[in-house]
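Something for you to look into today, if you have time. Could you write out one complete protein record for me, on any chain you like? Leave the record below and I will have a look.
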Amino acid sequence: MKRHFFGTDGIRGRVGEEPVTPETVLKLGWAAGRVLLAEGDDRGSVLIGKDTRISGYLLESALEAGLAAAGADIRLIGPMPTPGIAYLTRTARAQAGIVISASHNPYEDNGIKFFSSSGTKLPDDVECAIEAMMRRPMRTVPSAELGKVRRFADAAGRYIEFCKSTFPCRLGLGGLKVVVDCAHGAAYQIAPHVFEELGAHVVAIGNAPDGFNINRECGSTCPETLRTAVLSEKADLGIALDGDGDRVIMVDHTGRIIDGDRILYMIAAHRQRMGIPVPGVAGTLMSNVGLEQALRRLGIPFGRAAVGDRYVMALLSERGWDLGGEASGHVICLDKATTGDGVIAALQVLAAMRESESSLAELGEGMHVYPQTIVNVTLNRGVSAREVVHAPAVLALLKDVERFLGHEGRVVLRPSGTEPVVRVMVEAAEAHTVIELTQQLASAVAKAAAEADVA
């Protein structure tokens, strides 16, 4: 069945507009409760966590009412990174976990993501079953069967200890000065404690959420803020998370920004040096060709999935690999966690630094990053991104650019799965070529979008 509400990463949109409205989220909670209870062997509880957006209170209440109406018990976690909710869902033996977050998006947006009892994303057939249930009339169970609600009191402490457990117990972070940018998001009460308790001197920024400043000029989507802090503090490195804590971007002591591709390389190369098998690494269509080449020199296979951690996870499962991710900072270490986790990925890099007695800058020396530019072309409401990408003028220019680059570069035109934009990416050996070609393609896409809007 074609999904109407669920996208590549749950349900997401502008608060107050479908599907992120109180009415739809209430119905979603009820439908999810009905489906999940039917699938489970008992009445097990459903965990609900969120990031720090002002709308989290509204959507939490709507979900809570819907789940209770379906007869599901609820445990409220409050602000918690998305991977933390995945972990707690699994270890607390919950029926499912729900995250209220729009990840790296601005505060005006919000969304709903689900985790199965094993701490992984819900299978497609379960999402389809929830959507099918949403089309049926909502009926509340008898009063004696209504769901009950209670707080998950020790959630933060449990997740902090879990994160620390992924760092080798023989090592510590003593002597390291680390700037941690929490993006005013879900990790603001988690990440600084993890690195501090392992011995680092932590300078926390982006750790004062007010409901509106999540991801605003901070976090993994704005690493320049972290870069400035690392240089001014004369820190050894910096770690920037996104609003829900599943992405990480790092900065070395020289101010160089370390994206997800380079983080993947650092982890894979270190594991190989330590004699830990690395059967392969999964990236996406947007992964830098420099990552692929660096891994090839190490004899490590590399595979590309569609953009989105859901598809990276599918490729890892298909090939039996443990390590994968995206340049945006989604880094998945399946031997450590069931989903992408910004804090845990950063800890793997820090462990590599300690075990190899290297700086962050030195760890990444084996990978040459090709110049790459990504431009987001925003579409007006109602304009089909697919039609824009397949407009004759856009396809003709794309063909010319690909012919010009040959084997010395790549082009990707991709409708976003989470925002009304078309992403234009060009990668080539020369920076000026990348900039020029990206501008040409973005202009063609923008013109096609304007023509589609008029039509």
Observations:
- Residues 431-454 form the longest helix (24 residues).
- Residues 27 and 137 are 9 Å apart (CA to CA).
- The longest strand covers residues 421-428.
